[in-house]
Amino acid sequence: MFTGIDEVDWASLRHAYGSAKDVPALLRGLASADPAEREIALDGMYGSVHHQGHVYDSTLACVPFLFGLMARAEVPDRGGIVELLVSIGGECASGSCAPAHAAVRAGAEAFIALTGDPDALVRGAAPRALVRFLDEPARVLDLLRQRLTVERDGRVLLALTEGLGQFVRRHPGHAAAAVDLLTAQSAPPYHPGLRLAALGQLALGAPDRLPADLVPTVVQLLRDRSEQRCGGPDRAETDTLVGRIRRLRPSDEEGSHLLRTLHTALGGRVADRIALLSGQLTSPDPIDRCNAVWMSAALFREWRADHSEPVALIGAQLWAEQDQLRDASVSVLSELFELAAPAADDLAALLTEQPGLRVHRWERGAPTLGGPLKALARSGDPRAVPLLAEVLAGPVVPDDLGQVIVHLGGSAAPLAPALRRGLGRVALDSPDVTDRAVALLSALRALGHTEAVPQVLRLLRGAPGGVGPREAVVANAVRALGSFGPAARAAVPDLRRLLNTGCAAVAAGALWSVEGDASTVLPVLLQELAHEQTGHRRAAAAELARLGPEARPALPALRRMTESDRVWERTSAACAFWRIGGDPEPVLPVLRAAWSENPRTRGTTAALLTEMGPAGAPLRDLVTTELATPRRHMARTGGYGSHDILKDERLLRRCREALGDG
User: Fold this and answer.
1) Are 476 and 442 in contact (CB under 8 A)?
2) Strand residue runs (E) in 224-270
3) Cβ 88 vs Cβ 105: under 8 Å
4) Which of 83, 331, 336, 632 has the most neighbouring CB atoms within 10 Å?
5) Residue 83 burial (CB < 10 Å; 0-12/13-18/19+)?
6) Residue by residue, what is the 3-state secondary structure of 576-597?
7) Measured between alpha carbons, how far apart are the two ends of the chain, in Å?
8) What phi, psi does 206 have (nearest 5°)?
């Protein structure tokens, strides 16, 4: 299986971290008798030779040896090798990935023998490989059908069912017989897990064959399966990437996969997905409920709907005895902000009953706000205020406390004195001064607590002309002073000093708020508007917009800026142009184009349309369409920003305001 391995000039080949001279040792490690060594070798293959799915010349050179390892029955863990080959071959048969796909497809005949391999993990990996790489649809379908009649291992049967579903999607011209097999498997007398798998594949490839009572059927099958579930095989625990991923998987990974497939297939059928989640969240089995909590996060962040029922059910999980279930629920709720309101009663009651959850103390590092209290505060519930006051009165104040207070609005006003004192205690030479100070400054700014001027000035003077993280402290201190208006008159000399620094635009804006003298700040902002860096130009446009008609000399430069090749520059310039000159003619086309080009600009545009009133009427179709669109404007597959839901809800609110429905 390693014939010719030493004849390859591995040192001249490359992987993610440079020379591939270490690859022969990884390949040999895959055949080791030591389970830990095998896992470390597989970890190395994914970590360097096939890093993040990339294919290098060394990856292609490995393919023949991986096929050789796969064919030797004495090699343990060959299922993982088959999966690695399938991943290397990829889905794409053209472009840069074509050589890898062709290399694996050239050896596809070898996958046929694996369907009857004594190792169930190998048999389970074979169907996916066959469907993807063997270019004989009739033969592939016949092999899958034959194995379904003789296979007895439940996990392999699930893999065969998924193989049928992949076959339907890959070969629609040959799909009828495969769909019939899936339809038969979705009904009695098949095992509940197999029926769930078949329903998921039908939902992905032949939704017209789904039963009319899909959701109640799935919920009942899930409960039947949970009653019959048994644990999987024990695996060696190793400190590798593969091992860590395995430990992070759900305790019922199979069940999670089955239901996630259904949710993915249902896509925008949000009512069905909410009903399905509600069924999962009321399951007698806490593992099923935990899986449902994590699945709900994907629904919440991607689709707009009335999510109050599943959110309330997630709140009910806070009382579960299982730490994993409670922690999952807290994690999801803390990212919902106002949408977490249906769970607020449970959050408040939990924090009252278990005060230790208000602060999370880490083994290493500073304490942070406890997840339940963070979720309650982010939801805007005023019951968080006295709890935060107790935390503020404690010996150690979490650095992130200030970040949640802004979501409580005016109800957080009683916390302002304690926040002011906390800002006064921030050590100016501390390495974490930025994290601590910026959060407190944001909170005091949101509360308009003008009595904090001395503490803000202390911070500002302690970090003069800062760069990098220090510049963030200076900028946020300046914004806070600007929000205090004339009450911050003592800061005027400091703000004037900053007019020749990297914070010139925000300093000019703050000086305008404090003094109201355009003659001082306008030249500075005009100069910043011509700066070579886009960040400076955008900041200048934003501050010029606040000056209104006083900034009319900036209109020609802003008009030119609306033709920038950077969408955010154009948007910032258009907003400033309207607020200064009140002429919609050059503004509306810019905003319409930006709305489509970058969905992140939509919140800014919707807010401006509210200000424009009748002048913004030509863009009413944008906000009307947005309000009628069920998918969130920043919905992404495979990840999301922690504030995406919050930003989307704000966009919807601004759209309603722009239409006069706010």
Assistant:
1) yes
2) none
3) no
4) 336
5) middle
6) HHHHHHCCCCCCHHHHHHHHHH
7) 70
8) -145, 65
Backbone angles phi, psi at 634, to 5 degrees: -115, 25
Integer-rounded Cα radius of gyration of the chain: 30
What's the token pair of residue 433?
């001064």
Give the pLDDT of residue 205: 97
Per the listing, tokens 């080791």 go with: 32
3-class DSSP state of 72: coil
Question: What is the C-alpha separation between 280 and 221, in angstroms, rounded?
Answer: 11
Percent of the chain with pLDDT over 90: 84
Q: Tell me how far CA of residue 32 lies from CA of 1, 21, 47, 77, 498, in angstroms.
A: 13, 19, 19, 10, 64
List pLDDT tens digits, range 500-556: 998 999 999 999 999 999 999 999 999 999 999 999 999 999 999 999 999 999 999
Q: How many CB atoms lie within 10 A of CB 27?
A: 23
Rounded Cα distance, 54 and 346, in Å: 45
Instruction: Find residue 368's DSSP bridge partners.
Output: 360
The band of 312, judged by pLDDT with boundaries at 50, 70 and 90, is very high
Q: What is the pTM of this model?
A: 0.88
**Which two tokens mark 319?**
């009382």
Give the orientation angle of helix 308-316 with respect to helix 344-353, to 10 degrees. 20
Alpha carbons 30 and 33: distance in angstroms, whole number? 9
Are 347 and 384 in contact by the 8 Å Cβ rule? The answer is no
Contact 556, 586 (CB under 8 A): no
**pLDDT, average across residues 575-601:** 96
The per-residue pLDDT for range 133-183, each reduced to its tens digit, is 999 999 999 999 999 999 999 999 999 999 999 999 999 999 999 999 999
